[in-house]
Structure formats: C-alpha cells, structure tokens
Design a protein that fits this description.
By secondary structure, this protein is of the alpha/beta class. 51% of the residues lie in helices and 14% in strands.
Length: 85
C-alpha cells in the first residue's frame, strides 16, 4: 500500500496528514511524493509526522519522489538527513 498526495499546503495539510497516517496505520511503508505539485513548509511537518508514525509502529516509512523544492525547504530547516532516513 502506498500514499501519494498531490498537494500539501497550510490549507490542506491537516487532511493530507490524516490520510497519510491512516495509510501508515493500514500498512503503508512508502509515501510517493512524485505527484506533489503544490506544497509549502507544512509538507515538511507532514513528512516528519509520517516518518515518526511509521517508526512508532516498527515500520519505517520511506519517502520517494521528493520534489526539489521540498528538499530545499528540508535543507533550510536542517532536516534533509532526517527526511531521507
């Protein structure tokens, strides 16, 4: 099972976060961000929350297809390594 959001902005981050957490709770171990076309800094928070949720369940969550702009935000916040672990 995988989760592949297309938009994670302040306006819809709560919904994307809940959907991702539900997917992880149902066994997802991959979040595919290659279809992510709109995002802001709230996407960094969502990714970190998904990774924590997977770790808490003993199923590390992998992030695939992270857009370059999101990687830049993560690097700005000093979270680049965490988001790729």
């Amino acid at each position: 099972m995988r989760f592949a959001p297309t938009c994670i902005t302040m306006a819809d981050a709560g919904q994307a976060l809940r959907e991702g957490l539900a997917s992880i709770a149902h066994g997802a171990t991959l979040i595919d961000l290659s279809s992510l076309t709109r995002f802001d800094s709230s996407a960094v928070s969502a990714v970190l929350a998904w990774k924590r949720a997977g770790s808490a369940l003993g199923r590390p969550v992998q992030i695939a297809g992270m857009p370059e702009g999101l990687l830049s935000l993560a690097q700005l916040y000093g979270l680049h390594e965490i988001m790729h672990s």
